[in-house]
Amino acid sequence: MFILDRYILKSHIPPYLFSLVIITFVFIMDFIIRYLDMFIDKGVDFFIVLEFFVLSLGHMFALIIPMAVMPATLMAFGQFASENEVTAMKATGVSLYRMIAPVVIASLVLGAGLVYYQNMILPESNHRLMGLMLDIGKMKPTLEIKENIFSTAVDGYTILVREKDDKTGRIKDVQIFRTKKGMVPTTIVADRGRMSFIESENVLRFELEDGEIHEMPDPADISTYRKTLFSNFTINMRDKDRGLERSRRSYRGDREMSAGMMQAKINELETEIDGYSRDMHISAEKEMVGTLARVMSFDALKGAEREVPVPPTSREERRAQQNAKNPAEQQMYALETIMRRITGLDSQISRYEVEIHKKFSIPFSCLIFVLLGAPLAIRSGKKGMTMSITFSILFFLIYYVFLITGEKLADRRVLEPWLAMWLPNMVLISASGLLLWSTVRESQTINWDRFNLLKRWRQKGTAGIL
Fold this sequence. Notes:
About 65% of the residues lie in helices and about 10% in strands. The protein is built from twelve helices and five strands. The protein has helices spanning about 1-40, 45-65, 70-80, 85-90, 95-135, 140-145, 260-305, 315-325, 325-380, 385-410, 415-440, 455-465; strands spanning about 155-165, 170-180, 185-200, 205-215, 225-240. It has a five-stranded antiparallel beta sheet with strand order 1-2-3-4-5, with no helix packed on it. Helix 1 packs antiparallel against helix 2 and helix 1 (about 1-40) packs parallel to helix 5 (about 95-135). The mean pLDDT is about 80.
């Protein structure tokens, strides 16, 4: 029996490696399309690009490794079915459960390895990738300047551009504020122009058209204000060296942390929430006591009014009574502020919990794809192999859509984080269990011709002619 197990496992290795290469190629093409322009525009060194690419493989493999499981299972068991090896194994008393047992064990080992990878290797890879991405972003100031955002990419200047074309350098509706020490504060406004970076001189050049220059040498004396109109004006901003400078980041995002790091962060946030809750309860208690005291004073005052006539209150007294309400309103505002802060901290906790569960739910999908792929391939037989590959892509898309949607709903606190991340596994493992059970009970294969509408239409047309 161990010989059979080795044979089944060996039959899965070539298809798995083949699937891994093909899926990796697809991800690499997406990487090239996404980042090629950035590398070309910034003139990044080849070895820096290579490092960026290797680090990017980290988060790619987190999805590629489980994705390759189902096509490999389909190809291996599809080959068994097409060569009647499944029938031969059944004839010798080997059930389908026993056939897939070695692959199930292998998927569990692969999933355990992926859990280790997600917690120990991937966070460090993502941390280094994010640091390198930020360092590359500082190499060229023209790319740091974004539309409709005040930029301080160059020391001593604040720049605002409403429209910008990174390929041509053309800009529209430009505002430049010069705030360098020892120089006259200046505001430059232009309808349009062109922006370029001269690397040899470390100069950011603005060639502006149809604008104004506003200056006031002495801010205390308005008579020193002057305004200059221009049709063409060039300003050169001397910049620092824009070569790649490595920096060390201490901050880590949620995808740069292991499950242990995120759990420690969750504990800190929960402690902070407890502190805010205590403050809120104390404030509410004080407010309640103050309200009861004011009610009792008001009742006593009403009783006194029955015996002694009270003269009409003056404007100052009415204003004092209105101001007496302010402490209560301030207290209510403080409570609302605390509640908003607690809500924000709860949202952070949800994001961390989503990432923790994701580190375990995605590796678990390796098992699910085996349980889906094996019976689907056996029921399809040789003729349905192409359709089975199509269904494998469909199943993974369903899984991925469930995963992304669940993450969004958990971040918005619509679903519990554990449910959002494990719901795709629950749905697909139920489907795989039903498919596996029906395959064990039924020996017939799936007739994919029933789903081929074009072929059925042609057959119907031919029958009509005859």
